[in-house]
Amino acid sequence: MNKPAAELNKLWRWIPSLYFSQGIPYVIVMTMSVIMYKKMGVSNSDIALYTSWLYLPFVIKPLWSPFVDMFKTKRQWIIALELLIGVLFALVALTIPMPNYFQLTLAGFWLLAFSAATHDISSDGFYMLALEQHQQAAFVGIRSMFFRMSMITGQGALVYLAGSLTDMTGKPAFAWSIVFFVLSAMFISLFIYHKLVLPRPDSDRPRGEPGHAVKTFFSIFAKFLQKKNVGLTLCFLLLYRFGESQLVKMAPPFLLDSMDKGGLGLSTQSVGVVYGTIGMLALTVGGLLSGYLVSRHGLKRWLWPMALAINVPHLAYVYLAFAQPDNIFVVATAVAIEQLGYGFGFTAFIMYMIMVADGEHKTAHYAICTGFMALGMMLPGMFSGWIQAQLGYAHFFVWICIAAIPSLGITALIRVDPDFGRKKNEP
Fold it and tell me: Is the residue at 9 inside a domain?
């Protein structure tokens, strides 16, 4: 095997599994929790409000990202956190059957969210340290694909398992507990695997001076705020997914609610297949295609097609809400179209954050970017349940389409290096 092929093979050994492990706790906390609470009788307003608060650790993770930079290597952080997340999944499993499960599981999800946010910092930093820029662009579709595969697992296969176990036993709490024990075993296995296969790049070392932690902390933030056009950057991070941030909270309840409530009346298993599997596969295809195109032509050429792709397909939910089709293939097609567009459009977001973060403290600066990204998901998502309750599902999805205006407006204002993301030997 020649040297380039051998290097490529080494990257395939850890990038897919690393981003699969990054995605699992995120999708469990943000999406599976919504489905679980819906099936256990919690209202849409409470679901949207309380699960949106779970974005907070992802919003404020920049506050401790400099310390991840200063203490230990990214590899050490990744391995330790995967073990911790495995333990936390087991603790959530134990609390689900308890009478006050809502408060206890929310506490467990909070701990998982903080652990997952720190794992994100470490994983994204490790990715940028271990790969050249053109490799980062080439693998952005792959990392997105396996991040989405984790979503297929979390909101597809495991939701289907929970629905099947509920039908078999008549005990929803028991069914969801089994699912979380499965997750715990999965993460213990990932901990062992990554301890064995993650490389040890020379660039993965503590940065800054631990003895001057406070000084280094403020220095890192100051350098981020000194970046060119930082105000536009922050607006882009907050607004690019303005519509999607609201849709993602109400899509599963819409699919599950009965037709007399404006929903589609799907079973838990059907939601696992349609939204969690078919939708995620479409999203994965969109991410792979967009990653390939950016690596060939650069981000600038594809920025506008991606911005349109993440917003225009929201019309699919407008159709579903007004027509309320009972044909599962029609529903699956509409969901797949919306997810394909989301997958294609989200790559622009990732690559823009990588571009902004580039520099001496890229791990911490990328974490700052993703913190603002999470804030852009958290704030609109918190009120999406209330908006849906006021408008009903059909007019709520019309509102989601109108919410594309700020997204497209800020996309028109940002500036991107024409060569950023493009492989050096591409024309």
Answer: no
Non-local (6+) Cβ contacts of 146 within 8 A are: 15, 16, 17, 19, 20, 23
pLDDT value at position 314? 96
Q: Which residue has the tokens 């349940």?
A: 385
DSSP string covering 364-398: HHHHHHHHHHHHHHHHHHHHHHHHHHHHHHHHHHH
Mean pLDDT by 10 residues, the chain (427 residues): 66 88 91 88 84 84 76 90 96 93 93 93 84 70 78 85 91 94 96 92 71 67 84 92 90 91 90 84 85 83 92 95 94 94 89 83 80 86 89 96 94 82 55
pLDDT at res. 210: 54
Q: Which residues contact 115 (CB under 8 A, 6 or more apart)?
A: 25, 81, 84, 85, 88
In a domain, 3, yes or no: no
Domains: count for the chain: 1
Q: CATH number of the domain that 131 lies in?
A: 1.20.1250.20
Helix or strand run (H / E) with residue 77: helix 74-95
pLDDT in the model for residue 86: 96
Q: For residues 219 and 226, give the distance between their C-alpha atoms in angstroms, rounded to a whole number.
A: 11
pLDDT at position 421: 62
Helices 362-402 and 315-323 cross at an angle (nearest 10°) of: 40
Structure tokens at 251: 């899509």
Kindly provide the b/e burial profile for residues 312-321, where b requires at least 16 CB atoms within 10 angstroms of the residue's own CB.
bbbbbbbebb
CA-to-CA separations, 106 to 30, 48, 49, 119, 273, in angstroms, rounded: 11, 13, 12, 19, 26
Residue 174 inside a domain? The answer is yes
Domain span at residue 178? 15-412
CA distance 414 to 46: 36
